[in-house]
Amino acid sequence: MLGNSARGQATQLNVRGAIADSAGHSPLGFATVILMDATSGKPVLSTLSKDNGSFELAGTPGRQLKIKVNYVGYVSKEFNLPPATTGKSVIELGLILLVPQSGQLKEVSIKSTKPFVKQEIDRLSYDVQADPESKANDAFEMLRKVPMISIDASDNIQLNGSTSYQIFINGKPSALLASDPSDVLKAIPAATIQRIEVITTPPAKYDGEGLAGIINIITVQKKDDGFNGSQFGRYNNTWGERGSITIAAKEDKLGVNVFLGAGHQGMVNQEAGSQIITSADLVQQGNNLNGGNFRNGSIGLSYEADSLDLLTATMDFNHRDFDQDQYRNSELLGAADSLLQSYRLINTGNNTWGSFDVSLNYQVGFKHHKDELLTFSYQFTSFSSSLTNEVVIADPFNYTGENYDQQNGSGSKENTFQVDFVDPATKVLTIEAGGKAILRDNSSNFETENEISNGTFVPDTAQNNQFSYHQNVISVYNSYQIKLAAWTIKAGTRLEHTAISGALTTGSPPIDQDYTNLLPSAAIELSLSPTSSLNAGFTERIQRPSLSQLNPFANRADPDMIITGDPGLRPILNHLFELSYNSYAKASIRIGIDYNYADNTIQNVTTLLSDTLSETTYSNIGKDRSAAVNCSFNYPFTAQLNFRMNAQLARLWLAGVYNSSLYQNSAWQGGFDASAGYKFGNGYYFSATADYFSGNVYLQGKSNGNFFHAIVASRDFDNKRMNLSLTVYSPFEPFHEQVNTISTPDFVQSTTQRNIMQNFRVGFNYKFGKMSGNIKTNRRGIKNDDVQNGDNTSNQ
Fold it and tell me: 712 - beta bridge partners?
């Protein structure tokens, strides 16, 4: 399956070159390059140059061909190609210089507009650097602009309406984003991000990626030249302050990248409540308080021993320590609102977690072909979490519950070994193959103590236990990419074997699971013109439950609503089909449709244990179907004024049997994000954004929708090295009441939080230093993306 294929007489002619400005030799990206028949003048094939000005076209030997290059504001260039000879497969044109137009055009300012969104064969990407707001915003705010990504009123990131996805930084998972990525992304300046990719049809080299796909954040790799960096800071009158510093340095063959971030959030007080309606009505009203500190960082090293050997190492860390307090007045009401029971709940809780990873990569090149690569990788990852609940019951009326303390210490350690091989066998065919071993050890140690007298606590043996869970995944993959004149095809398979063992110290029987899956994927792209294409894809992926979903710890932060995991959860097999049309002329348009189905999906399910007690857990009971339409549109009305909009509409069908009851739910789900920006003179920029999401759909219920809007004003200083900004969030909506509702034949349960929406932020970004060389990174590395994310009911 591997190796160089035999090369005979060339059946295809490849033409390569690069487009640049004639004065400064600066590259011209998105220039139109047309390969034409020299006799008839008819186009044979066309393409757009890349950001670095390079391009490649394929023709057929045996006839005279010529090249024509167009770029707005420059004089077109046209010339004949030298005749192809037998066995010659490549013509290198080198640097093609274009001359700026003169004459009357000197009085007219004409600029080529770079498209924000670009579709590739198996993914789309949002060019953050092309967006003027990247100077003022953080990474989290830029996610709102990316097609198929939405953010709800609680700042939860969703991809295609799903929380089942992975977030990568530079193509690999990072300890920076191991838990609650929203906080970390708010501390990363958007100016350090090159683009954000949504990988909708992950190829075979990726592990099972989740139901929706992969969000891949690519940081700026192209440096100016020696030493440079940037400082980023922001203050929000509600959510506190965050800041970071980014530094890059290169000396000879050694390169270093450093990112350090920190933040503080004061205790934010938001009204909250819940209700369980049965024969009686349990009503809780009170407040949630949340605040604390976090710090995170990343260090990357690169050593280029020679032109063929590259050593890289990265280390990421993240630590978060937040107090999470709850105060509730609880009342059980009977007929005619008669008071049957009441008490006051005081829970002073804390959630602390930390993550750390270190990875080593050795990349070997080959003299006969610079793009043929062999990479050996190792990664160690550690995650730990500590949750405490100190619950006090005050002023009880007909309530017999006692005070109690809870602790849950959980964590995981992971060793990963990987080898990857990339072989550009011919100019048309590229082969990739590799193998991987992931060895995971997860654990949770939890205990509850009940107060039997004033200040005296005794262990609750029924709720004290230790949980261990071991998961080993061995996999191999092989994929092929064929690039023809107008067609590009990428297809492959991945074979994965999973062995699982686990047990509680006391109680449940041990867990023993063993399964093997063959996972295919395929993507096809048809180029319709230099600026348009049709894309289609199919993927089948496996998704394993996370520790938060498996952990049997019963979280009783609210004694009336218990949240727990299920150690017996099994993986999900997901199937996704998609088709899209993409056009990147002056108006950038993408229209996509997709169909997604999965059986045995993991669903949140809630059971009523008594009139005043419910239990929420996870179970493999769901059958999910969804059909969606996604649209994105970008249009620069002038060089100063730009309009952008993303929209999505999906129909969801969910069904499952739980506790002998059949649940079915079908609904429409969708939303949009639109913004308009205007560049004034002297570095001033102004934009307005509106964002709507209709809410989530669950097997047993739904959540309500939310509307978000913001106004951004910024200005560049010091020759664009410094940017100051002011952002006003939701000036016309001070609060939003977020409601999650569960509805069954036996009961209705709802939880409500009154989120603070109206706030403002001031920020700055300052760049310093200069470099003259790029810091190299290996092209292949470890991507552990086979485990499902948890959601907001995590019980870690």
Answer: 687, 727
Q: Tell me what pLDDT residue 213 has.
A: 75
User: In the numeric block, which tokens belong to residue 683?
Assistant: 């570095």
As given in the structure block, the two tokens for residue 670 are 């969708």
Nearest to 520 by CA among 482, 602, 577: 577
Report residue 57 as tokens: 């076209």
pTM of the model: 0.78
Using alpha carbons, select from 111, 97, 112, 93 the residue that is nearest to residue 21: 97
Per-residue pLDDT, 1: 36
C-alpha 405, offset from chain centre: 36
CA angle 767, 772, 778 (to 5 degrees): 95
Tell me which residues of the chain have a pLDDT lower than 70: 1-12, 23-24, 59-63, 72-73, 83-89, 101-114, 153, 161, 178-179, 208-212, 221-225, 770-796
**Tell me, what's the pLDDT at 214?**
84
pLDDT of residue 593: 95
Which among 412, 445, 418 is positioned nearest to 433, based on CA atoms? 418
User: What is the maximum span of the chain, computed from C-alpha positions, in angstroms?
Assistant: 99
Burial status of residue 541 (CB atoms within 10 A of its CB: 0-12, 13-18, 19 or more): buried
Structure tokens at 435: 């193998």
- Write the CB contacts of 106 (distance below 8 Å, at least 6 apart in sequence): none
Q: Among the residues of 145-250, which ranges form H helices? A: 181-185
> How far apart are alpha carbons 232 and 763 in whole angstroms?
7
User: What is the C-alpha separation between 695 and 592, in angstroms, rounded?
Assistant: 21
Q: What is the pLDDT, as a whole number, of residue 43? A: 77
Q: What pLDDT, on the 0 to 100 scale, is given for residue 162?
A: 72
Contact indicator for 738, 154 with CB cutoff of 8 Å = yes
DSSP 585: S
Buried b (16+ CB within 10 A) or exposed e, 609-625: eebbebebbbbbbbbbe
Query: What's the pLDDT score for residue 2?
Result: 37
Alpha-carbon distance 787 to 414, whole Å? 12
Query: How many Cβ atoms from other residues are within 10 Å of residue 410's Cβ?
Result: 23
Q: How far apart are CA 334 and CA 147, in angstroms?
A: 49
Calculate the CA dihedral of residues 34, 36, 38, 42 and round it to 10 degrees. Answer: -130
User: What's the CA gap between 433 and 205, in Å, rounded?
Assistant: 8
Instruction: State the Cα–Cα distance between residues 721 and 726, nearest whole angstrom.
Output: 17
- In order of 2, 146, 192, 206, 417, the CA distances from 420 in angstroms are 12, 30, 28, 11, 11
Q: Tell me the C-alpha to C-alpha distance, in Å, between residue 508 and each of 39, 465, 607, 615.
A: 80, 11, 20, 18
Answer yes or no: are the C-beta atoms of 599 and 625 closer than 8 Å.
no
- Please state, in angstroms and rounded to a whole number, the distance separating the CA atoms of residues 441 and 175: 17
Residue position matching structure tokens 């009911």? 793
Residue 12's pLDDT is what?
Answer: 63
Contact yes or no for 366/308 (Cβ under 8 A): yes
Closest CA to 79 of 94, 90, 91, 69: 69
Taking the mean position of all CA atoms in its chain, how far away is CA 483?
28
- Provide, rounded to the nearest whole percent, the portion of the chain with pLDDT above 70: 89
Angstrom distance (rounded) from CA 742 to CA 4:
58
- b/e map of 218-227 (b: 16 or more CB within 10 Å)? bbeeebeeeb
Q: Tokens 């063992």 belong to which residue?
A: 501
* Rg, C-alpha atoms of the chain: 28
Reading the block at residue 598, the tokens are: 């999965």
